[in-house]
Structure prediction request, 249 residues.
Amino acid sequence: MSSPAILVRDLKKSYGSKAAVDGVDLEVARGSFFGFLGANGAGKSTTIRMLTGLIPADSGSIEILGLPLPGQELEIKRHIGLVPDESLLFDRLTGAEYLEFVGRMYSLDRPTAIARGRDLLELFELQNDRKMIAEYSKGMRKRVAMAASLIHHPELFLMDEPFEGVDAVGARLMKDILLDQVRRGATIFLTTHVLEVVERLCDRVAIIDSGKIVTAGTLDELRGGGESLEDAFVRVVGAGQMRERLDWL
Prediction:
């Protein structure tokens, strides 16, 4: 339990001649709410896919909950909850059927899986919706994906843009649930484009740009001098102001 929830050293992944992740070092303490920020194409999703074992790293080392990846994939997956960027759900199941299936995959007995699925559907305000997942809106799919990540009571959550497409009410509900998980001792690793989410939820942040970590620390450390997180983010990634204006705009 003294080991970090996530420990990454010199992680690299290239596609052809392009380095998507180029020597990333990360350390995420247990019980923290960690935000992983970057512009489109900066390497966020590639990193989180390597952390979940969905794609192999070219080089470097990964430890999840003190266990090496690769090497202990099955044991690691028993203790993590995943909300991927794309909600890869079974469209021809109802929400209740899908949660029962996920619970059984995590070795819950059938009555427990059904009961927990029912509780989670009620928590996420989906209990009265008996449609198949194929008929769900994007926000509803995100809700059921997060419900599935909770059903086995994991120690670590890996979440790639979990609030994308979710309305304000649903997002508030999901934020409150995640904060409750951190209070009980879980760790959350979150990628998002919504800086307001990071400012409200995260206690530590890392920013990745062109496959490299350019800064990491607490929110106060990143916002040195009293600037907003948005200003700090733009400054760190080197994005400039609009150089010229179009006369016709």
In short: The chain is about 35% helix and 25% strand. The beta strands are 6-15, 18-28, 33-37, 59-64, 67-69, 80-83, 156-160, 187-191, 204-209, 212-218. The longest helix spans residues 168-183.
